[in-house]
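Hey,

Quick one before I head out. I ran the complex with octanoyl-coenzyme A overnight. Inputs first:
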Amino acid sequence: MGYENIRVETRGRVGLVTLNRPSALNALNSALIAELNTALGSFESDEKIGCIVLTGSEKAFAAGADIKEMGSLTYMEAYLNDFITSWDQVSRARKPIIAAVAGYALGGGCELAMMCDFIIAADTAKFGQPEITLGVMPGAGGTQRLTRFVGKSKAMDMCLTGRMMDAQEAERSGLVSRVVPADELLEEAMKAAEKIAGFSLPIAMMTKESVNRSYETTLAEGVRFERRVFHSMFATEDQKEGMSAFVDKRKPQFNNR
Ligand code: CO8
């Protein structure tokens, strides 16, 4: 498929999606989201892909939902077409996804980054939920995911004042996993993705599923879920290979089975 709003590449076992609407600071419109969903779907079903990286430009990961497209929406259009629900496919991906964020990640851009499994930020990154300045509030998980990442006080501060958080504050607060110099952002994100993609894909997927479970359930249930999944790993060839390789002092050759 020819993409107009994103660039899609495969580098080894890593699928790379670059948001590419420079004239609107990668504002998310329905055409971009449709392309993103198609690209994600094809990486998800491609067994040669073990990890996905989602990035934007130097100036903006994404400056939010496209205000010009959204501004005239009516309540009935939003309700009947279930506006936004098809926009969160990233959060339903089963393969690991890393967000590599430089510049603005605002509104839907911040929400999209938070739908990924972890965020690597350039030192230029700026995160914010400025929807209140537009007369709305976050609509793609901002009030929920940001609160889980940074806690109630800071999430309230961000959502109620609309202020931006720089990369250092985002790292201190637990929103991003690491901050790197802007010119090394993609290299660092690709290195992390290649590392993940070099492990067993089903084991990485089960690990992701288990970590995500911690958001949805009690500690006791979560630990029970983890135990069941952990037990199931002894049915995989990759567990046998990983542990035999350690004992034999050689590099494991995982075959994703
Ligand atoms: N929508 C549409 N166009 C935008 C957006 C946007 N969110 N952000 C920037 N642009 C456009 C500008 O209109 C401008 O276009 P033009 O040149 O035609 O006038 C171009 O991008 C460059 O922008 P600026 O001239 O404003 O650039 P600056 O460097 O001066 O400022 C800012 C950069 C601070 C990022 C500024 O552009 C800004 O404040 N943008 C809006 C940020 C915002 O409010 N975002 C939240 C949007 S609401 C939202 O996201 C709801 C979420 C819904 C769910 C989404 C699901 C994933």
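The CA atoms of residues 203 and 233 lie 7 Å apart.

Talk tomorrow,
K.
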